[in-house]
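Render Membrane-anchored protein in 3D.
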Amino acid sequence: MGYARGWLTKVPAITATFWVIKVLSTTVGETFADYLTVNVGLGPLVTDAVMITVLAVALFIQLRTRRYTPWIYWLCVVLVSIVGTQITDFLTDTLGVSLYVSTTLFAVVLAVVFFAWYRQEGTLAIASIDTRRREAFYWGAILTTFALGTAAGDLATEALSLGFRNGTLIFAGLILLTWIAQRAGAGLVLTFWIAYVLTRPLGASLGDLLTQSTDFGGLNLGASTTSLLFFGVILILVAREQILANRHGVAVKGDGPLGGRRADYSWAAAGALAIALAGVGLSTLHSTPAGTAVTAADRTTVKQAHPATQLGDLTKFATITADLQSKVAANDLAGGKTRVKDLEVSWDDAEAGLKPRDSAKWHVLDGEIDAVLTSLRAANPSQADCAGSLTALTTTLNQYDGV
């Protein structure tokens, strides 16, 4: 097989299983990044550095290979999903850039990438990626689409208060309309890239729908269960891709016993059905919603009820904060540093459900929780600083609570 023909096998065929893996990899990538940042405790800067380094290594391997290797390709997609999300989150959460601005910025960057790609190569077709330069343009576009998809998805679900349930339906509907447009004669290249951008917010919304507490309208599976579920389906579908690539190459996806367009639709549908059935089935095992773990006595001792606000029940955060105040009052700052991890994890887990309800109030609380984390995790924590940040947080939690 010649060099040019080897390059033609670097990108997978665009089939039903391609889209299923793409959507699922989006959720797995985002959840894994959050796990490293919050649960493992690496923090955003270390996580960003680690993921960027791993992505660089994976892309180097991908660019050096001579033929389509599914496990390397999809590893790169997952890592690009992580880094693309981190870029948007850095602009929004660290630099305070408006989602309207970041969405516009990434749309312009993507347009520039496409313009340069087309001017240099004369085509944006996926099937035409047969040189290293074209593949470099391809991965540059992929990274930008993930960043754009993150910003646009956050803008729709948070700034426009759509929430993850409506987001799942809306983004799935937009992808369906894109498919209908393609079937009606719209350009394959245009519809592919539109759908590719939309799969990012669809995957995030779908993941949030499964992971979020029933208090927020989710299925309460939790991030770990959802990630394992998605990862298992990805492994099966990518293993099938690897078998077909070894037997037939990327262009012929179908003459073997595992291949064929009809078989591909069947595998994609089976993967989606497995997610749906497992999601509904496992959610029934979580009969107690996350918010009901707090007793009526906790509600009375921690705070009093306030008129309903959009954020809803904040009892579990107020309960942890009250426990932290007790430890700080006893000058048990080491115990407070350990306990504050629970506040960080709980707040991060509830972000997708709380933030769309009232983004402005969420950001206020997020900043005050960051102040608590900073004061307790300081090299030489001050009891006065810790007490002050906790008092401010308690006041705001009571003010915003909607029980």
